[in-house]
Amino acid sequence: MKKCPNCSQFFTDDNMFCLDDGTSLLYVSETGQEPPVFPVSGDQPTVFVPKIQTPAVFTPPATAAVQSGSAMRWILPVLGFLLGVICVLGFLVFYMKFSTSNANNTSAASANSAAETNKESSTPSTPNAKPAERKEPTPAPSKSAPPEMNAPVLSRMNFRRGEITHNETGRIAARGERVFLLRCRRGQTLSASVSSDNNCVGFDNNSSSVYYVTTAGDNRITLKNSCESTAFNVSVTIR
User: Fold this and answer.
1) Model confidence over 169-184: pLDDT tens digits?
2) Are 203 and 235 in contact (CB under 8 A)?
3) Phi/psi of residue 123, each to 5°?
4) Would the pTM of this model clear 0.85, i.e. be above it?
5) What are the two backbone dihedrals, phi and then psi, of residue 83, each rounded to the nearest 5 degrees?
6) Please, where are the H alpha helices in the chain?
7) How many CB atoms lie within 10 A of CB 195?
8) CB atoms within 10 A of CB 182
9) Judging by beta carbons within 10 Å of its beta carbon (0-12, 13-18, 19+), is residue 10 exposed, middle or buried?
10) Do 86 and 79 form a contact (C-beta atoms < 8 A)?
11) Per-residue model confidence as pLDDT tens digits over 10-33
12) Is the distance from CB of 181 to CB of 222 less than 8 angstroms?
């Protein structure tokens, strides 16, 4: 049995130094004291172990993980929303192209149908059939117009950008003429109709409508008035 001369604690013989203060241990016989008597109950003497300071372990904060989890929760819905927007835009573009194509096809079919109808109407069904005669309205008695009022009035009809049908209104002097110039390309189809009070105003073919295939450059539409000064409305379509 050994004893620490500094703190008077007892240790077993296999210890060389005090476990608390590091002092060299002495045998009990050398100190002149009796060894302590331990209980007989089988308890073992307490062994003092030097305290070892464990270095602090750095624990990374959980903020990064929480932020990463939060970012993942938001990224997936945002990606899903963007994908849905792209799909909707793609469908709208496809639908607009499809609608435009159908509209163009319908316009072309209508133009072809109108051309065929006009051709059929212009061709007599039988060789001996006489074309229908247009009843000329009976002009109201009036004073003779001055010569300068009967001179043809020449003007140009301009279509706005993207317009295929144009309406023109005006007034024609008694027994006068109104000539419109339209710049067209070769091979276009021109159809026109005119309306006026008492059907006094018509085209130079003595009809209220006209249809023909245009030539390159200026094309003419001539209106004639068989009555007194009359207002008119002419509608021209070029395809």
Assistant:
1) 989 899 999 999 999 9
2) no
3) -95, 125
4) no
5) -60, -40
6) 28-31, 63-122
7) 13
8) 20
9) middle
10) no
11) 888 888 889 888 888 888 775 555
12) no
Sheet with strand 165-172: strands edge to edge? 165-172, 230-238, 189-196, 209-213
The residue with tokens 């792209």 is: 86
Beta strands (DSSP E) in 99-188 are: 153-156, 165-172, 177-184
Q: Which residues pair with 213 in a beta bridge?
A: 189
Secondary structure (3-state) at 113:
helix
Q: Which of 227, 189, 185 is nearest to 210 (CA)?
A: 189
Token representation of residue 119: 């051709």
In DSSP terms, 223 is beta-bridged to 178, 203
CB 152 within 8 A of CB 214: no
Cβ proximity of 11 and 4 under 8 Å? yes
Token pair for 231: 């207002």
Tokens, residue 224:
């004639």
Spell out the domains of the chain, with CATH numbers in brackets.
1-51 (no CATH), 147-238 (2.60.120.380)
63-92 tens-digit pLDDT: 555 555 666 677 888 888 999 999 999 999
Distances (CA, A) of 98 to 92, 103, 108, 124, 217: 10, 9, 15, 41, 34
Instruction: Evaluate the CA torsion angle 98, 99, 105, 106 in order and state its sign.
Output: positive
Backbone angles phi, psi at 199, to 5 degrees: 55, 40
Question: Both tokens of residue 188?
Answer: 């276009």
pLDDT band at 149 (very low <50, low <70, confident <90, very high): very low
Cα–Cα distance for residue pair 219/18, rounded to 1 Å: 126
Strand, helix or coil for residue 138: coil
